């Protein structure tokens, strides 16, 4: 007859074998980041869905320098449709280690910072691939509301090569840029 200890160990082993296994991702970041060039508005082209951006479309992230040297972060979008109610969240970011400028920390609530990793960055600062410390967060950002399909696919392929499950990417609807008026 098995002892209580053996029964506990079996239950313990079964419990942990049923837990979802965290996939391993390549978290390496860009080695150079010119913060002045990175500041400004970025459009969310695609993301993994998560609770803090639930039902948001037309999402932008705008970065500006604060007086204290940190970065002001304004994430904004529209609820459900591009004509829906406007929602905005203001946070702060910092580069904790100047030797690793692509590894930022961002906080939207007090001092609870999360990893914001610049994984890929266009040399002209026109698009970026952003991750975190887990495989649950991924963003594709662009300086324009649309990103050409070839560039988008290249970023998706780079994310997949890093270990991200790119089938979870949600393409974020964005407003079309205004067309110049014809005279």
Question: Would you kindly provide a brief summary of this structure?
Answer:
The chain has 183 residues and is α+β, with helices and mostly antiparallel strands. It has helices spanning 4-18, 35-38, 149-161; strands spanning 40-48, 56-65, 71-79, 86-94, 103-107, 114-121, 127-131, 138-142, 169-171.
Helix and strand arrangement:
Elements: H1 4-18, H2 35-38, E1 40-48, E2 56-65, E3 71-79, E4 86-94, E5 103-107, E6 114-121, E7 127-131, E8 138-142, H3 149-161, E9 169-171
Plain-language structure description:
With 183 residues, the chain is of the alpha+beta class. Helices cover 17% and strands 34% of the residues. The chain has three helices and nine strands. Strands 1-2-3-4-5-6-7-8 form an eight-stranded antiparallel β-barrel. A hairpin with a 5-residue loop joins strand 6 and strand 7. The longest helix has 15 residues, at 4-18. It starts with a helix and ends in a 12-residue tail after the last strand.
What structural keywords apply?
183 residues; alpha+beta; 8-stranded antiparallel beta barrel; 3 helices; globular; disordered N terminus
């Amino acid at each position: 007859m098995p002892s209580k200890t053996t029964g506990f160990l079996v239950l313990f082993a079964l419990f942990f074998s049923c837990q979802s296994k965290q996939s391993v991702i390549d978290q390496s970041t860009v080695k150079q980041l010119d913060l002045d060039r990175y500041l400004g508005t970025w459009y969310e082209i695609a993301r993994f869905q998560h609770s803090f951006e639930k039902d948001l479309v037309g999402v932008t992230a705008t970065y500006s320098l604060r007086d204290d040297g940190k970065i002001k972060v304004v994430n904004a979008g529209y609820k459900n449709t591009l004509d829906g109610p406007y929602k905005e969240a203001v946070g702060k970011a910092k580069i904790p280690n100047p030797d690793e400028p692509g590894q930022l920390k961002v906080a939207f609530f007090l001092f609870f910072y999360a990893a914001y990793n610049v994984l890929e960055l266009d040399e002209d600062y026109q698009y970026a691939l952003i991750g975190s410390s887990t495989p649950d967060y991924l963003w594709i950002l662009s300086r324009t509301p649309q990103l050409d399909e070839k560039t988008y696919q290249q970023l998706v392929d780079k994310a997949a090569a890093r270990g991200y499950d790119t089938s979870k990417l949600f393409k974020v609807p964005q407003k079309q840029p205004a067309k110049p008026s014809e005279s």
